[in-house]
Amino acid sequence: MADDIEDIKAQKREQLQQTANTPDEPVHVESGDHLDELTADHDVVLVDFYADWCGPCQMLEPTMEEIAAETAAVVAKVDIDALQSLAGQYGVRGVPTLVLFAGGEQVEQVVGVRDKSFYVDLIERQAS
């Protein structure tokens, strides 16, 4: 029974990915306007505020790549050193900080590294 549920979830994720026309790799945000465009153009956007010097951010990178490839969400990456004002606008005080947008509105903010299933569950709650 559990296998059937997992198969159904996998099929739904694949269908959403195909119909959502979302990039299958993380998008590097170039400006506040660029982030605004992403959140306006896509139903679910997971924004990863990171820094190159941050060890936990580096550990999270492969997970973000997998989430971009496997879910209907757009994964956006914001370098807090390059876009300090944008990080400040979202109250980023530590990295990694992930902000989830649904329907153009911020719905979640998480600080620190969690396992992949945590982020996927957040996304799936918004995508359904």
Features:
128 residues, alpha/beta, Glutaredoxin, 5-stranded mixed beta sheet, 5 helices, 49% helix, 22% strand, globular
Name the average pLDDT.
90
CATH architectural name: 3-Layer(aba) Sandwich
The counted number of beta strands is 5
Q: Report the end-to-end length measured between terminal Cα atoms.
A: 21 Å
Strand content: 15-25%
Report low-confidence residues grouped into runs of 5 or more: none
Oligomer: single chain
Broad shape: globular
Helix content: 40-55%
Q: What is the assigned CATH homologous superfamily?
A: Glutaredoxin
Largest sheet composition: 5 strands, mixed
Kindly give the count of domains. 1
* CATH topology annotation: Glutaredoxin
Structural write-up:
The chain has one domain (2-127): Glutaredoxin, CATH 3.40.30.10. The model has no long low-confidence stretch (mean pLDDT 90). Strands 1-3-2-4-5 form a five-stranded mixed sheet, sandwiched between helices. It is 49% helix and 22% strand. The chain contains five helices and five strands; from the N terminus they run H-E-H-E-H-E-H-E-E-H. The chain is globular, with a radius of gyration of 14 Å. The protein is α/β, with parallel strands linked by helices and 128 residues long. The longest helix is centred in the first third of the chain and has 19 residues, at 2-20.
